[in-house]
Amino acid sequence: MTTRHSTTGDVDPAVRAELARLRDSIDNIDAAVVHMLAERFKCTQQVGHLKAAHQLPPADPAREAAQIARLRRLAESAKLDPAFAEKLLNFIIAEVIRHHESIAEDATSAADVLAE
After folding, report:
1. How far apart are CA 10 and CA 75, in angstroms?
2. Residue 101 near residue 58 (C-beta atoms within 8 A)
3. Cα separations (Å) of 9 from 2, 19, 77?
4. Phi-psi region of 4 (alpha: psi -120 to 50; beta: other; left: phi over 0)
5. Statement: the pTM of the whole predicted model exceeds 0.85
6. Mind listing the pLDDT tens digit for each residue in 24-61?
């Protein structure tokens, strides 16, 4: 049974302490997720430059499908909703493709300027 309180002052100090401990853990995990995403995007930026240099397309549907299937399996084994994991990866993939398209456009523009 859940007890509701109108103000946090009514909450048992032990409950408040446990809530603070859990929230600190959540904050630490959020920070780690942000740092991991930053590292991931550093790598995908390098991929984008490599693709642009070799005139490869920004998107790779076969790779994306394989990654989605892989992430769904990982999510299932981690007891995370695979549909949520897929939505998250699709969001990340869309952002990566957007970056790759921008890198390719910049490379094309630079090549056009050099050709003039």
Report:
1. 39
2. yes
3. 17, 14, 40
4. beta
5. no
6. 999 999 999 999 999 999 999 999 999 999 999 999 99
Residue corresponding to tokens 């790759």: 100
State how far the alpha carbon of 115 is from the alpha carbons of 55, 61, 104, 108, 110, in Å.
17, 32, 16, 10, 9
Q: Which residue has the tokens 């430059």?
A: 49
Please tell me what DSSP assigns to residue 12. -
Dihedral pair phi/psi, residue 32, rounded to 5°: -65, -40
CA distance 14 to 5: 15
Give the count of beta carbons closer than 10 Å to the beta carbon of residue 21: 10
The answer to whether 41 touches 92, Cβ cutoff 8 Å, is no
CA count, 13 A, side-chain hemisphere, 65: 3
